[in-house]
Amino acid sequence: MQDFGQIDVKPYLTTKSLVPENQETPIQFSNDDIVHPKLFYRRNHFTYPNFTSSFYFLTVEGLVHTSKAFSLQDIYSLPSKNVKAVLECSGNKRGLFQPKVFGEQWGKGAISQGIWKGVPLRILLQHTGLLNTAKEIVFEGHDFGERPDSNRIVHFSRSLPIEIALDPDTIIAYQYNSRPIPFKHGFPLRLIVPGWYGMASVKWIKKITVIDRAFSGPFQAKDYIYYPNNENEKGKFPVTNINVNSTIQFPREMQLLHKGIYEIKGIAWTGKGSIEKVEISFDEGHTWEPCQLDAVPQKYAWVSWNYKWNAANDGEYAIRSKATDTYGNVQPFDPFWNKKGYGYNAHDRIKVKIE
């Protein structure tokens, strides 16, 4: 079996912008299901925050029985759990939308995966209690800056509905892959909401506030909303769960190959349930062949897949992949276009040439 010309060198992040820093994981070169911290994608709205972790306290206030400020030692002493999860920017693959939309033109690498360790939020909230009127929980990060649409200084803040916040797998994480979370990924504390797009997993958590209404912060009410209509807000709805998706890692787009037998490889993931199957097509989706999954699919995590391809004839080939999850969600032929470019999950498609 031939390979696709992989070389034994270390890949690097792909820079999309430097201020704020936004960089992609070299996902096409990843052979592991745990991404090294140095290759974990970076998504920021502002410059990195400046604070002293020695005096770090996480405040929980609002509609609670007892407001409380937790030190890091308080949090480290509470019962913890590990969650292996994909984190995917909701703008992943934005650059593939047609017609184009404004925003960071992410390719296929605004996605990474690893094992997070932390305290389930529900356990933390047992120490403060919740009033019966509580509806949402707001998480404010230490990162802040000016929004160009309002000329106001704001912190990055997001909310979760109570039922998601109290899910046993929603955690206040302090470790990534058995080490402290790197500063650029949220040290010392980061919210992890497995199954939701990455904007929900607020970094550098400063404060948690329990409220009795829908949160109206700009990163909740303006951004991270699907707007199906370019001219108005008709039909809008919030970005939440990760859409079922797949990416072909090897071969690479527009690669030249010789005749032979190759192993087409990729990953597939979803926000609800787990991956049930992955299929591949060489005729623009008219017929499909089943792929082999490399492991038993897990909730929240991507699964690697492969397909043995006998490339016997010269010519150009368009290769498509599509995944189906246990909820019956299937990658569509075309993406759901929305003017902010969120949630792209059409069939992955590459072209190669055999000569």
Detailed description of the structure:
By secondary structure, the chain is mainly beta. The chain folds into 2 domains: 14-238, Sulfite Oxidase, Chain A, domain 2; 245-354, Immunoglobulin-like (Sandwich). It has helices at 72-76, 121-125, 162-165, 218-221, and strands at residues 14-17, 22-24, 57-62, 68-71, 81-88, 111-120, 136-147, 152-161, 171-176, 179-180, 190-192, 205-211, 225-226, 237-238, 245-250, 255-257, 260-269, 275-281, 289-290, 292-293, 303-311, 315-325, 348-354. The protein has a 5-stranded mixed beta sheet. Strands 5, 6, 9, 10 and 11 form a 5-stranded antiparallel beta sheet that branches. The longest helix is centred in the N-terminal third of the chain and has 5 residues, at 72-76. This is Sulfite oxidase. Keywords: Metal-binding, Molybdenum, Oxidoreductase. It comes from Fictibacillus terranigra.
Number of DSSP strand runs = 23
- Write out the CATH superfamily name of the largest domain: Oxidoreductase, molybdopterin-binding domain
Give the proportion of residues in helices: under 10%
The CATH class label of the largest domain is Alpha Beta
> How many structural domains are formed by the residues?
2
| Whole-angstrom Rg | 21 Å
Helical stretch tally: 4
Which regions are unreliable across 5 or more consecutive residues at pLDDT < 50? none
| Global shape | globular
Lateral arrangement of strands in the main beta sheet: 4-3-12-7-8
**CATH fold label of the largest domain:** Sulfite Oxidase, Chain A, domain 2
Global structural class: mainly beta
Q: What is the CA-CA span between the terminal residues?
A: 17 Å
H/E topology pattern: EEEEHEEHEEHEEEEHEEEEEEEEEEE
Strand content: 35-45%
* Chain-averaged pLDDT: 96
The CATH architecture term of the largest domain is Alpha-Beta Complex
Domain Oxidoreductase molybdopterin-binding: 45-217
Keywords: Metal-binding, Molybdenum, Oxidoreductase
Organism: Fictibacillus terranigra
Protein name: Sulfite oxidase
